Amino acid sequence: MMKKVRTYYIYILALTETALLTAVYYYFWRIGYTHGIPGYPEYLGVGKFVLMAVYALMTGLIMYFAGGFRYRRVRPGNIIIRQWGVILAVNLITYLQLSLTAKHMVARRPIFDATVVQFILIFIYALLTDLVTRRIHVAGRMIVFADDDSIENGYLIDGYKVAEVRKGDRGMTSLTALFELTAQYDAVLVGRQDETTKYIIRHCLDKKIPIYIGRDEPLIQGVSRMKDDARNYVLILGMGDGGNRFFDRIRSYLV
């Protein structure tokens, strides 16, 4: 049972947060727009539940495509910034939707109060989620390409559980098979580099699959995650040599 729960843990977290954000909006919406004061139109009947369903669906979808539910895959600060941006957009759209329904611009205070509370909720939820996922290690499954025995199945690397270790040569003729293989996992680690490495990195970046590489002095844009006596594992953020720029450093800190 616990194994099944862990499998769907991220989905449960996402659905729970969406429900909480929708509940906050519903609370301020109902107390703000149902007391007969001019500028606060009444919304009665089953229609209010339809509007709530639209709000929840819009919040969930935009959060998902904006990467707001990538718990433990990126740092809490990144999650908070993305979710704040999504909530601002969703609440603005919803405010315009309410105004169109009322046929005039409705009062701004309820939606403003809801947004403030939602910001606080997002901040607390992101920190608690990061704390919990660190303890139970549910970031996902990782595949490792390495030739030594320093990493084995079951190891935990930056929150990912090593599910498969591939040893041996990786030829250019097997790139398609490698791409299909990496798509089955939540993260990739390349311990030994060869001619296929840059193509694997590019593929993972395009598919938004977190990829780590072992290098002493990385020549790619990334952020160091793990160090030991033998290697320095770097989470790759992009190709090129622009890692020293200010905004790249900020991005590296947030990921």
Task: Explain what you see.
The protein has 255 residues and is of the alpha/beta class. It contains eight helices and seven strands; from the N terminus they run H-H-H-H-H-E-E-E-H-E-H-E-E-E-H. Strand 2 (156-157) and strand 3 (160-166) form a beta hairpin. Helix 2 (9-32) packs across helix 3 (47-65), helix 2 runs antiparallel to helix 5 (109-136) and helix 4 runs antiparallel to helix 5. The radius of gyration is 23 Å and the shape is elongated.
The H-and-E topology, N to C, reads as HHHHHEEEHEHEEEH
How many runs of DSSP E, i.e. beta strands?
Answer: 7
Overall pLDDT confidence: 77
* Helical run tally: 8
Distance between the termini: 32 Å
Report the principal-axis shape.
Answer: elongated
Assembly level = single chain
Q: What Rg do the Cα atoms give?
A: 23 Å
Strand order of the largest sheet: 2-3-1-4-5-7-6
Main structural class: alpha/beta
Estimate the strand proportion: 5-15%
Low-pLDDT runs of 5+ residues are none
Sketch the major β-sheet. Answer: 7 strands, mixed
Share of helix, binned: 40-55%
